[in-house]
Amino acid sequence: MAKTLVLAEKPSVGRELARVLGCKKAGEGFLEGEKYIVTWALGHLVELAAPEDYDKAWAKWDMLTLPMLPEKMKTVVIPQSGRQFRAVQAQMRRGDVAELVIATDAGREGELVARWIMEKAGWKKPAKRLWISSQTDKAIKEGFAHLRPAAEYDNLYHSARARSVADWVVGLNVTRALTCKHNAQLSAGRVQTPTLALIVDREEEIRAFRPKEFWTVRAGFGGFTATWRDKNGQARTFDKEKAEGIAAALTGGTGTLIEVKKTWKQTPPPPAYDLTELQRDANKKYAYSAKETLSIMQNLYEVHKLLTYPRTDSRYISDDVVPTLPERLRSVLVEEYKPLAQQILMHRPLQTRYLVNNAKVTDHHAIIPTEEQPELWRLSGPERNIYDLVVRRFLAVLLPPFQYEEVTLKVKVGNEILHARGKIVKDQGWKAAYDRSFVLEEEDADEDEREQSLPELKQGDKLSVQWARTQTGQTAPPKRYTEATLLTAMEHPASQGLDKDQSRILEETGGLGTPATRADIIEKLFSAFYIERRGKELCPTSKGIQVVGLAPEELRSAQLTAQWERRLGDIARGQEKENVFVDEMRQFAARLVSQVKASDATYHHDNQTRSPCPECGKYLLRVKTKRGEMLVCPDRECGYRRSVKQTTNARCPNCHKKMELRGEGEKQIFACVCGYREKLSDFKKRRSEKSAGKGDVRRYLQQQAQQEEKGSSAMAEQLKKWLEQNQ
């Protein structure tokens, strides 16, 4: 009997598909049943070949070998994944396998994972595509009942391949050019560099900013406070004497209420989450990095099956999902969500005008709960937090608008006009899904005129000024990016000082990168030591600032990069040819290399210590990582690095704060901000006395070591290979 081979992207997903499809017989890298064989990748099993696989001369990092522009791109099996590739290939070559179902993640990268494996393994038989947005048993069964021909997704594969080739051609060439030119470990990329430029440009704005002192005038009328404004509606004045004169004139005076204006207003619920918006809110509320949020979402999607596909750029659902909403609402009839979910279910038909928009749904709809009944006690703390965000947003978008009456007052005292504003809530609407701590950015009140409860007043009333005083302040510089605001800037780089035509183009393109790649880009900036975190703020390092200056100007353009993403989308829709885009990227890479070669700019290490490198004797550089500090050798031919200190999960026995692990070897000590110090050997002894064996300590320390950023991008791997070859 002929069988169908199912190719999943990860072992965990493969096992779930196998369970639903009744595949119980385990083999080397696969599970088999009567009708199906399920196998899996480990993410990518195949990648683009390294430069030295095309030309032995390219093995040496030398400016004379640039640009590297292979006539035809090759793929190779990733060495660490070779065993699993052979297992997948063996199943593809079985005589009883008649067709293949591509069940990798339903997106651009998932398509690339499968197609490269199929291509490398020599698959020639028919193939179909499983395209689902959740991992529930119901979704899997329905997906297998409606499989599509794989050929319908050929353009998506072409788009993914074009993206990969463009990153290879542009990224590796410019990285090698910068590294060889300046004898320092520098890297650049078509999305990485413009993103770094956003952070550097903001830092330069802050450094150039000069604060100016201003004054405001407020007056109390018993039941409320009003703010003075000039004829242009400005509450601030930069003239101290003028402000004090106004306050003196108001003191003890009597005003007339010249305007009482009541306006009925309503605020619609915010749209459901896409990945970027969820990463923003998770960073604002819980300080999770974009990478952490995506990882948590993957668990909620793949393991717990409570939420739909995470890597989506849509904030709406299509009409065909509407019939499933009642079941999804019944699935969240638990704990604090139950009363609101019941209330929504009771009012039929469901209010979906803020959730349904066919025109704005791309490959996947918004992130919403699945029909799976949750067992919340099984979720970790972070998983519970992300689940909470999504469920509350799902409930909110099915509720009516928030309705209120806005009251504005104008009081005339002598020749001056004072303003006051208040709000009377008429219907909580969608805000019933949130507590008072939830504030949308667009709802933030004008800092010079805050909303307040106002007494019942009518036009013409006479009001006594009980007090009047000035308040001083300083104009504030632009705020540094957090991960939340950086994600916004990457999604909408039109706000970065571009003209109207550029802004329009950028709004149409979707910005820098995609929801699926933005978290990785931010992580690469950390691992390359281009940015560091101070609290929640992201600050460029000296290295990051210099790299932006050294990189070719064209590569720093947010507009150009966003246009590339639009073109990749056009390829996926069949509106542009892959080879046209790739040829332009090859020409672009050659032009960038020429610019680097011709540049007379220089690179300086501003973070040099007086500690010599034990390998080559050059002074080491002190760099901050996400978890601590390291000393690294500036010589690209050496590559020596060691940890100075790193934040651990070990808690101080005195104040219970996380301790730092400092030093190396037998001299390592744990140190706390409260002053507590403990040798590593004593820490091990104390842990063992608490029934923690040596294995626990060893695993703990290994985990800490693994958490050091060492870079795992293609460019980082190339740097590593180059260093090994030039030792």
Overview of the structural elements:
With 727 residues, this protein is of the alpha+beta class. It folds into five domains: 3-146, 3-Layer(aba) Sandwich (Rossmann fold); 164-207 and 480-598, Topoisomerase I, domain 2, CATH 1.10.460; 213-268 and 405-474, Distorted Sandwich (Topoisomerase I, domain 3), CATH 2.70.20.10; 275-397, Topoisomerase I, domain 4 (Orthogonal Bundle); 609-725, no CATH class. Helix content is 37%, strand content 20%. The strands form five sheets. Strands 2-3-4-1-7-8-9 form a seven-stranded mixed β-sheet, sandwiched between helices. Strands 15-12-13-14-11-10-16 form a seven-stranded antiparallel β-sheet, with helices on one face. The chain has a seven-stranded antiparallel β-sheet with strand order 19-20-21-22-23-24-25. The model is unreliable at 441-446 and 707-713 (pLDDT under 50).
Class computed from helices, strands and strand pairing: alpha+beta
> How many domains, as an integer?
5
Strands, total number: 25
Beta percentage is: 15-25%
CATH superfamily of the largest domain: Topoisomerase I, domain 2
The major beta sheet can be summarized as: 7 strands, mixed
Strand order of the largest sheet: 2-3-4-1-7-8-9
User: What would the principal axes of the Cα set say about the shape?
Assistant: globular
What is the CATH topology descriptor of the largest domain? Answer: Topoisomerase I, domain 2
User: Residue-averaged pLDDT, rounded?
Assistant: 86
CATH class of the largest domain: Mainly Alpha
Low-confidence region ranges: 441-446, 707-713
Radius of gyration: 30 Å
- Count, helices: 21
